[in-house]
Amino acid sequence: xxxxxxxxxxxxxxxxxxxxxxxLFAPDKGSETRDKLSQSLKDLGDAIKDxxxxxxxxxxxLKDKVVSSIKSKLRDVxxxxxxxxxxx
Length: 88
What we know:
The protein is built from 2 helices and no strands. It has helices at about 5-25, 30-85. This is YtxH domain-containing protein. InterPro entries: Desiccation-related_membrane (IPR052928), YtxH (IPR024623). It holds the Pfam family YtxH.
């Protein structure tokens, strides 16, 4: 994982932990606290899903670039080889 990704994940985890602790020590009724905690965890899950989707898209893009580069190099080698065969 990239350093930026690690920082984002750590930040999200810290936010979730802080929110959970804040809700647990809040003077609200238990049912309200549970509802808030549930919503906070849902929001965290959504944020993690979004980040994972972004990383998957980045990996897919990288894969496409690598495949394109390899195909290009193979074409170059094939042309060079066919030129060598014609001269023989």
